[in-house]
């Protein structure tokens, strides 16, 4: 079935790979972008793709994006959260680094929360809504000295569980996608793991697509994956 997908983070990396895959499979895409003109003339600038201004830190932009998409296509039945930021803020952060913690919370937690809240009536009314959230393995365990980022991802995992509880009886199915290192610019900047050894964005796009093809009774709540052995 053709779905109308609201998707964040499509300007690069994982979000862009998912958008391309879903477009190829016939879905309609509404992409939320800080700079809607950034994809003009690219392969995601076609009839079944709409570009809207969106800033995860601005709840009003979430409301406006949802309203514009419903006005254009009548309904939203799928929401995919791919946008997020990484800050390496440690537990014993320096004076001034608390701003990084505020930004992590605003983008990684409240951004998905506000957008889900705005899209919820449409997701619920369709009877077969889907929400996918790119959480990260950092929402399941903490490695090294980073504190701010995994704390935000643990909170995001809790938000996914709340979405699942709230939406179950309305047919909304939620999947928290939890990869470790993915071959993106962000990951390559902070790890020595070789790009070829990482999970590839195209593989996550394939998983995202497969999830949308599953019936309600078969949609997993959590997909955790490792590119290297972890215990």
Please describe what this structure looks like.
It is a single chain. With 231 residues, this protein is an alpha/beta fold. The chain has a single domain (4-225), classed as Rossmann fold (3-Layer(aba) Sandwich). It is built from 6 helices and 7 strands. It has helices spanning 13-24, 59-73, 98-125, 148-167, 185-188, 201-213, and strands at 4-8, 28-33, 49-53, 78-81, 130-134, 173-179, 222-225. The chain has a 7-stranded parallel sheet, with helices on both faces. Helix 1 links the parallel strand 1 and strand 2. Helix 1 (13-24) packs across helix 6 (201-213) and helix 3 (98-125) runs parallel beside helix 4. The longest helix is centred in the middle third of the chain and has 28 residues, at 98-125. The radius of gyration is 17 Å and the shape is globular.
Layout of strands and helices, then pairs:
Layout: E1 4-8, H1 13-24, E2 28-33, E3 49-53, H2 59-73, E4 78-81, H3 98-125, E5 130-134, H4 148-167, E6 173-179, H5 185-188, H6 201-213, E7 222-225
Parallel strand pairs: 1-2, 1-4, 2-3, 4-5, 5-6, 6-7
Question: Which properties best describe this structure?
Answer:
231 residues; alpha/beta; 7-stranded parallel beta sheet; 6 helices
Low-pLDDT sequence parts: none
Largest sheet strand order: 3-2-1-4-5-6-7
One letter per element, helices H and strands E, the order comes to EHEEHEHEHEHHE
- CATH H-level name... which superfamily? NAD(P)-binding Rossmann-like Domain
The CATH topology is Rossmann fold
Principal-axis shape: globular
Overall SS class: alpha/beta
Overall strand count: 7
Largest sheet entry: 7 strands, parallel
